[in-house]
Amino acid sequence: MKTQMNSLILRTTGHFLLPLLLIFSIFLLLRGHDEPGGGFIAGLVAAAAIALYLFSMGIKSARQVLWVDPRNLFGIGLTLAVLSGVPAIFYGQAFFTSQWWPIYLPPFGTLKLSTPLFFDIGVYLVVVGSVLTIVLTLAEAEG
Amino acid sequence: MFLILQPLVYLILSVSLGLGFFRLVKGPTLPDRVVALELIASLTVGLIAAYTFFSGQTAFLDVALVLALTAFLTAIAFARYLEKGGQRDD
């Protein structure tokens, strides 16, 4: 039984929509702290992008384009999110207190490196990993 | 001019939403309902875009974008389901 739909329109759309949606998800991820966005919704957009690719290209190509097992993403994300709480301890503050390290980069302005950013990246990876684990497993069970 | 335009746009979109909802409830077959859901999603995107235009809150445009993406995915998923001969209670 085929997992792929043989539609030229869908295949073409899947091809050029995937990079655009991944860029959009990263945009949402990085904007998240003060404005709408953040790790969760960005992760959902990225997972939707891969799911779209899965529907148009089939399961093998979807696994190839992801290049890591989604379960590994899950673990890496959770580790990153927990580790983002650690630096506060060395400043004598409570666990998970936000730390900000603004870095001045001459041509671009200031890069506000912070622990909430790493926490959000962790959430992003957990959401992508868990949603894609579910979607890919279901698609494989479907045959 | 916006004084007339704003209520008019909202009225037209709301009436269309109502008609779409009617088709969703009544629709004799499953494909009818899928198309009605797609119509409702598109109208919601239009409603959000209109609200963004009239209020100047540009952050809502991202909501419209994500909603359009998920609606597209839903339509494809339903099409797959129907193509594979999924269960349908017509």
Describe the overall structure:
The complex is a heterodimer of chains A (143) and B (90). Chain A has 143 residues and is mainly alpha-helical. Chain A has one domain (8-142). Chain A has helices spanning 8-31, 39-57, 59-66, 70-83, 87-90, 115-142, and strands at 100-105, 109-114. In chain A, strands 1-2 form a two-stranded antiparallel sheet. Chain A is elongated, with a radius of gyration of 18 Å. The mean pLDDT of chain A is 86. Chain B is mostly helical and 90 residues long. Chain B contains 3 helices and no strands. Chain B has helices at 2-26, 30-55, 60-83. In chain B, helix 1 packs antiparallel against helix 2 and helix 2 runs antiparallel to helix 3 (60-83). Chain B is elongated and about 50 Å long. The chains are: A mainly alpha (143), B mainly alpha (90).
Summarize the structure.
The complex is a heterodimer of chains A (about 140) and B (about 90). Chain A is mainly α. Chain A has helices spanning about 10-30, 40-55, 60-65, 70-85, 85-90, 115-140, and strands spanning about 100-105, 110-115.
Q: Tell me what portion of residues of chain A adopts beta-strand conformation.
A: 5-15%
Order of helix and strand elements from N to C terminus of chain A: HHHHHEEH
* Count of beta strands of chain A: 2
Binned, the helix content of chain A reads: 55-70%
Would you tell me the overall average pLDDT of chain A?
86
Instruction: Please identify the structural class of chain B as seen in this structure.
Output: mainly alpha
What is the strand content of chain B? under 5%
- Uncertain parts of chain A: none
Instruction: Note the overall shape of chain B.
Output: elongated
Distance between the termini of chain A: 6 Å
- Number of DSSP helical runs of chain A: 6
Question: What is the alpha-carbon Rg of chain A in Å?
Answer: 18 Å
Number of beta strands of chain B: 0
Number of structurally distinct domains of chain A: 1
Count, helices of chain B: 3
For the biggest sheet of chain A, the summary is:
2 strands, antiparallel
Tell me the series of helices and strands of chain B, N- to C-terminal: HHH
Mean pLDDT of chain B: 89
Judged by helices, strands and strand pairing, the structural class of chain A is mainly alpha
Largest sheet of chain B: none
